[in-house]
Amino acid sequence: MAMPTRYRDRLMSHCEGQLVVTVDRDHCLLLYPLPQWEELERKLVRLPSLNKQARRLQRLLIGHATELELDSNGRILLPPPLREFAELDKRIVLIGQGNKFEIWDEVQWAERRDQWLNEVDGDEDLPTELESLSL
Predict the structure, then answer these.
(1) Is the pTM for the entire model greater than 0.70?
(2) N or C end of the chain: smaller count of CB under 10 Å?
(3) Rounded to 5 degrees, what are φ and ψ at 120?
(4) Can you name the residues that pair with 29 across neighbouring β-strands?
């Protein structure tokens, strides 16, 4: 996978091209610059090990975490098991998410995006953190 040019320089200066990829519950891949991953990993490790959801999250994210490096052409090689997990075919979509990227199969991304856009969430309350957000 080739990293878009606009991100290459920042990734090289921020983390020397050192990245970590792991799985997400939405069946995409999460790609973190190494410093952001290390911060997240520290938080995950501190979660209570007797909590079933915490253990599940630790197993998924930490258990599948794989270190990668941008090559001289700005490409990364995604491991086959992770490509298989996310059902990545020929065309993929890279979605910036602030401190990380999501990597989706293009068809799956379009389907999920349309599903999210069409969902009616009238009965669900916004989390407190989102109540003051203005878009």
Answers:
(1) yes
(2) C
(3) -110, 115
(4) 23, 103
